[in-house]
Amino acid sequence: MIRLEKINKFFGDLHVLHSGLEITLAEMMAERLGVEAEFTPVTAATRTELLDSGALDFVIATFTITDERKENWDFSTPYFTDYVTVLVENASGITSLEGLLDAKVGVSSGSTSARALTEAMIEKGIIDGANFNKETFDASTWTEGVAFLQFDDYPTISTALSAGEIDAFCVDKSILAAYNTESRSYIEDTFAPQNYGVATKKDSGISTFVEEHISAWLADGTVASLITENGLE
Fold first, then answer.
1. What tens digit of pLDDT does each residue of 51-85 get?
2. Are residues 154 and 105 in the same domain?
3. What is the pTM of this model?
């Protein structure tokens, strides 16, 4: 139900702290169902497969709501909005989107980060968008002004950045926070608001339950309190 690739205040440390925004929300829903939460590691590339197979009841793992995804899965009302940005080594001298022209950027397989970055660079006039199509965009074949390498998990992208295999690491800022160090910095640009929702199988019995509880916790301030508690404002 929760991504366990990394540890920060968004996802939490399942093994030590058993806390974090998404872990807490998952535990609260399990409690309302009268069961004990069972957590399964997921990545951007595996979460939907595990959900579709029935291995998971729901996914709460920085899963961005998009129109395309809503065709295949149900999503709750968003419980958090993040923004995409880019992490670089300070030594690279890259400070903005303009500095990413002709760069090689690491992204996670199954994510929308590459498309979001390409759109942002097109909107700022940094690269030509004549051949860009949001519906058919493929990070593995796009090479106009920026190129992408796709990885199975975030720690591997971070390692590739340290090794100089890529020039930058692009994903939601809450995820990048776990990989920021004194020798790294975010570029000054943020873009592409990412609304996170709890995903369930299409028209499943649990979809309504999840929506009712997320909506209620948003309305009564519970989610806002958890966001503050975990330093995610």
1. 999 999 999 988 999 999 999 999 999 999 999 99
2. yes
3. 0.79
Number of Cβ within a 10 Å radius of residue 90: 12
Residue-range definition of the domain harbouring residue 223: 21-79+197-229
Q: Does residue 2 lie within any of the structural domains? A: no
CATH of the domain at 204: 3.40.190.10
Residue 152 CA to residue 133 CA, distance in Å, equals 24
- Taking alpha carbons only, the member of 73, 78, 39, 40 closest to residue 62 is 78
Instruction: Write down the pLDDT at residue 217.
Output: 98
Taken as a whole, the chain contains a residue count of 233
Same domain, 97 and 154: yes
Q: Do 46 and 123 belong together in one domain?
A: no
Report the number of distinct structural domains present in the chain. 2
